[in-house]
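step 4 of 6: structure.
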Amino acid sequence: MAKKAEEKGFTPTGVVYQSTKLPKPTSKTHDKLGLKKKDLLNLYESMYRQRRFEERAAQMYQKGKFGGFLHLYIGQEAISTGVVQALNDDDDLITAYRDHGFALARGASSDECMAELFGKATGISSGKGGSMHYFKLEKHFWGGHAIVGAHIPLGAGLAFANKYNGNDRVAVCFFGDGAVDQGSLNETFNMAQLWKLPVIFVVENNGYSMGTAVERHSAGDLHKRADAYGMKNDIVNGMDVFTIIDKFTEVAKDVRKNQNPWFLEVRTYRYRGHSMSDPGNYRTKEELDEFKQTDPIERLKTYVSEKKLVKDDEIEEITSRINQEVLDAIDFAEESDFPEPEALFHDVYAENDFPFVK
Amino acid sequence: MAELQFREAIRAAMVEEMRRDESVFLMGEEVAEYDGAYKVSQGMLEEFGFRRVIDTPISELGFSGIGVGAAMNGLRPIVEFMTFNFAVVGIDQIINNAAKLRYMSGGQIMIPIVFRGPNASAGQLGATHSVAYEALYGHIPGLKVVYPSEPGDAKGLLKTAIRDDNPVIFLESEQMYGLKGEVSDEEDFTIPFGVAKVKREGNDVTIVAHGKMYHVAQQAAKELAKDGIEAEIVDPRTIKPFDMKTVIESVKKTNRCVIVDETHPFCGIAAEVGFQLQRDAFDYLDAPIQRVTVPDVPAPFAKNLFDLWLPGPKQVIEAVNAVTYRS
Ligand SMILES: Cc1ncc(C[n+]2csc(CCOP(=O)(O)OP(=O)(O)O)c2C)c(N)n1
Ligand SMILES: [Mg+2]
């Protein structure tokens, strides 16, 4: 009879400390990266907007103002912000359901993003998508996808069309560490490399797939999956916006010029639970506190103030302007109308008069 | 009128549309260098080159999704599945992405894509290779579903499918690829979706049959005619949208209806058509509607069991006898 102590399990067990380890940030200064004072302020503004928007969104959720799932990006804002800075405005971005930060970073308004959470017709997806399905095509932001791993081939497809049309655009496809375990990733990597697609695949390794630490759900280093396909890959510090700008500038240049894919593993951390209902019993407080010390927004603030690049009141002006902008967005969302009942049948097909079966 | 094989009609539709529109391309397993597993795409590589006729690995999930992504970003892909039995591996891309992204994006995303290839059984291939999928795809809002029975319809409907701004599931049959039929010579001949065709006129019973089963219905009708029963055959041609109006008009004339359907009975096409008929034409029916389908079991291999499984003219005649109270 097998005794308990002799029992062998399958999935590695135990609470994990240091679920994700940060590689060194770039040593390049803002000057070296070609960033002007105006750029630094813009980076701060973008990151702070994403943070403040989600803090308020969480409050509204807790007040019961809207339903559905709500996954917060808080802690990971350097990635969306740095990538948008490094890439061209017509490069194509696509991500998973933790998508508010990307939409805002790409220039969606706080109003339309908040209204979408409330399910209003003025929302970024006309109230048809909700938190996990933001889309803003005019900004080349392709969503907002909530079947884990299912948008990885879509990202390659965006790149396929760009290459087919010879338009020089690069597609960047973000997903979580959990998505690395999907077959879609492996099928897509194979074709992307075989067909030399201009796409950057990015895993935002935040240490956890829901409550399962990376080392409990994925065998081996994530970025090394690309080695099997001969795809260029690297690990990047995702808590420092300069590092993101530095790396993505270099990689995008290579992809644009040589028309080959890349796989970047960006190490980062989410401060909040997986979604609003997650008490976070799978991780330690020490780990969380440690990562909060690396906060991307504080880091940038410290940099600009230590170097005396901006005045304190310039940061304060942005902070209070964004605080107000997000409050106004809540008013906008509350005051907006829900979609008309007819909208139920709109946009299922290109023809709104499709003969739906009754 | 030219006489073409089914495969030639499908090829002609693709070739014409690819000549007409640079954004149309074909991808799938063995479509290029091998000339197509069933030779549907024969010669297309030669005309259009490797940029537009693309061999894929055996990665239905991956290449379906790349097709959807390319469609989102302005192209009009034709994705060929070696058969729809293998499309199941990539069905997430069809059901969750192709069918829903327009809706979830509030109409921002357009996905003009055609998924095409052989559907349903093709002889003794065993259970995994023998499923008729039109009911399953027909169930999903956001998809259009086409299953033509003859080369002429196939060409006109495929051209419409390629020009359609929605994802279209275009179902064919291995067993029909060699079938010959008249195909319109009319330049740019297209057939609109949702328009059924009365392909045989008769006053005694309406038989609704599409795809491969249309031919079974024709055989049965020939036999029945010898007995003085004139069946009217309605081929819906497209499953979604489905032209119930033409079916109802026919039933108002014949007052009896048999639906022949290659899908399983539960939640099948016949179930839906039967429901709508009883709701909308109840007063015109002189007998309960009957259906002929494959049974509620997977396809068997053994020849004798397979013959029991697949509907043939005999079952259709029995069903007609039932609705006409002949026995
Ligand atoms: C195919 C699929 N399986 C399961 C889920 C449920 N689910 C949603 S998010 C998630 C965890 C994914 O974690 P990760 O990819 O690391 O992204 P993160 O939440 O850390 O951003 C799971 C299991 C899903 N949405 N889709
Ligand atoms: Mg994760």
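step 5 of 6: annotate
 - The mean pLDDT of chain A is 95.
 - Residues 31-332 of chain A form a domain with the Rossmann fold fold (CATH 3.40.50.970).
step 6 of 6: archive
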